[in-house]
């Protein structure tokens, strides 16, 4: 007797996601479907505009991984025009992106993901003194580790729980059997949940120093960055470094120890490959470490593909092999049913709705997300992919951090191929980035001190674009994984714009061969629900990808729709009053 | 043509707008003070949303917040709301009875930028505490429950707090393609959801550019037919807190004002609170002196940029944009777009993606000014239409003189 379980809305993510799973009589997940139910049409909005203006609009695809679409778009346009930004601009962009990584990963783990592992009601039963001792098992110098502190937090929680109105903690799955932490461990993690609310502000401020604000920074332009004033002023670099060191401190003394604690407590699940998924990993690569033109520089994150968890072989990445399929997505292609490369991408909405029981029509179309395919392989992207591909490529820095973390947790490398491993990879990467950013900020400060204030590569847009057709792509690594924007510019105006984003790779539905996407595949990897009325294990695995659904669904081509026939006027770009 | 006369332009760009009267006179404030006192006394007599909630002082100590920090925050908030310092004790009291206000926060066609901004609300952490102390009954990004359990939180809140809750909406609402947004086990579209929840709300607060005026999804050609909250909701008061994202200071400000007075703050014709949107970025800009002196950045990273010159020629839309960023900035006052040398993109104005968000002055960008008679012509006293036309004047002038190889700039009026 199998039954279908619907989880909609999946909360604690960006955007709107619906998951349907099929359970067998033992409540084991035997089938899964991922569907996105929100969509805006941002690429169509980009068409016909001056390519220099695209970054700011593209950024609004997402406010959580804020900025990734901004610099990816700018990079795509720079690539099309053949412009390389100067050293200072590279460093500033790396620093802004690095601060996003730290911020995004910390907020994800504590505020979006931790409640899948941590039972805050159980923390009420903890002994604050024992908790302080317990924390010392995972860190030499644990974050704010005092019985008094833990006691105060407990008091506070007690009030919440006793008053019966838990606000954001209401109606959750407290007491579910798959929560495995002891009361003391739950108390430590709950304390860090609250502390992280404070710490994430510093990380956001870091972005604001050179970005102007967070969310949605504004200092990056085609050719470089605008924040010359902030680079010139040594107090800004000092402030940045101070915030960076504070943030890194939190990562090393709270985030990493908590991950090690989870790795040990949930060890069996890691070793049994719970939530492992596809086993194919893709990385575009990011964080240029020298000033060579785009895609010729040495990178912090190595690019490549690992197939079937085989770490002995890395396939080099080739952007021309990226395609998108719409067999199970609410779109239809004209004149073809084959997957298309983003340069030839089309997006004609073809919404077919739900069935008579309000369930997804899983044999037909069931999502606003397309199914990306790389060279006929379905892949997973994200922090785990970056660590795996880096490790397999012999990237010394990555290998070093991964080995260190596994050694402390006492886990073998294969433990990474699981929901726990996916969550751990994110923390390992945060640790690595917070270290390397110290080098970058020092370099930027020393450039400024030497009087090097170059922030922009001069170019003449009209001359470069007039009467020409130019193509370019921006390939980066967002916190959630491989991100690519493909742009075609005709006579200075955007003729076609396609973005293939991390959550599209991960959250996409089945493809034309019936192969699952990464979320779907990970849900059918050895997961049994302890209580079929509580989707806790589903949330745990889906959240381990850090879903960002607004990103995944962003495309629309108005061609051939009866809703409205707009003509894009190449002269006027974006006029509202048609 | 009137608009293109030099002295008219000068006047336009040099005179502050002052749409909000910052001193309304003793009589007004005395009355307001009394009203606020009555309101607070009434609130104090009400039960908190959470029975047996902890006392405010305990709360402060929980969060390790000194009374002093709290009063610093109170002063900042009182000033933001443009109330005289005599109101500080009332603002402090208002913070203490915040837990009487239930909040439901829903996301439609959004990017979560405003939720993210909200969790970074300004130091001291009192803001955080205030938000925590508010009773946020439903917030998809932060709540622990999901699926059916999440839906239950929402339905319980609607039932329990019928007619009392504040409904916050983030994201635009698609009306042409309603199915571009659905949520819930029994899928409900964005329009249905907003209307259903607004019906029983005390007031609806549209947070961010999308919920206010449609924002990015509504930019040309607006594929899904996205609109702001005020276009789908009627019969309940609506406040817009535009900007991309909305500044958390202003979000908290609106809540505080509501707690303090039981009413919504004074609004302009676009339903924006005047305390925050009562003057232009340009009126209080840190680079204003350079504008008046005719010192402009001419290209990114040039000598002017190194010396904080005015960004008007690099496409700054400060003169057309009503918001308080020049004063409160972002991320605890860390920085703001003009500070970072980029210029303002007009993100608190309707249709800014199609009118303002470029690196070029209005006249030099390939964008026509909106047709007169649109929503802009209703902006109080300073029609944006006029401003845009003015900009065309200035911009055209700047372009013309550039063509002629002359560098003419506007200089301020000498005292006569």
Q: How would you characterize this protein structure?
A:
The complex is a heterodimer of chains A (578) and B (416). By secondary structure, chain A is α+β, with helices and mostly antiparallel strands. Helices cover 40% and strands 13% of the residues of chain A. Chain A has 18 helices and 16 strands. In chain A, helix 4 (87-113) runs antiparallel to helix 13 and helix 7 runs antiparallel to helix 9 (234-265). Chain A starts with a strand and ends in a 26-residue tail after the last helix. Residues 554-578 of chain A have low confidence and may be disordered. Chain B is built from 17 helices and nine strands. In chain B, strand 5 and strand 6 form a beta hairpin. Chain B is globular and about 60 Å long. Chain B has helices at residues 6-14, 26-45, 56-62, 67-80, 88-96, 113-119, 126-133, 147-160, 190-199, 208-213, 248-261, 274-277, 288-292, 303-306, 325-328, 352-355, 384-403; strands spanning 102-107, 135-139, 166-170, 173-174, 182-183, 188-189, 203-207, 226-227, 238-241. The interface between A and B is large, with 110 and 101 residues.
Describe the secondary-structure layout:
The complex is a heterodimer of chains A (578) and B (416).
Chain A: E1 3-7, E2 17-23, E3 29-36, H1 42-46, H2 54-59, H3 68-81, H4 87-113, H5 128-135, H6 147-163, H7 183-211, E4 220-221, E5 224-225, H8 228-232, H9 234-265, H10 267-271, E6 281-283, E7 286-288, E8 299-301, E9 304-306, E10 322-325, E11 331-332, E12 348-349, E13 371-374, H11 383-392, H12 396-409, H13 419-449, H14 461-465, E14 469-478, E15 481-490, E16 493-500, H15 502-507, H16 518-523, H17 536-543, H18 549-552
Antiparallel strand pairs in A: 1-2, 2-3, 4-5, 6-9, 7-8, 10-13, 11-12, 14-15, 15-16
Chain B: H1 6-14, H2 26-45, H3 56-62, H4 67-80, H5 88-96, E1 102-107, H6 113-119, H7 126-133, E2 135-139, H8 147-160, E3 166-170, E4 173-174, E5 182-183, E6 188-189, H9 190-199, E7 203-207, H10 208-213, E8 226-227, E9 238-241, H11 248-261, H12 274-277, H13 288-292, H14 303-306, H15 325-328, H16 352-355, H17 384-403
Parallel strand pairs in B: 1-2, 1-3, 3-7, 7-9
Antiparallel strand pairs in B: 4-8, 5-6
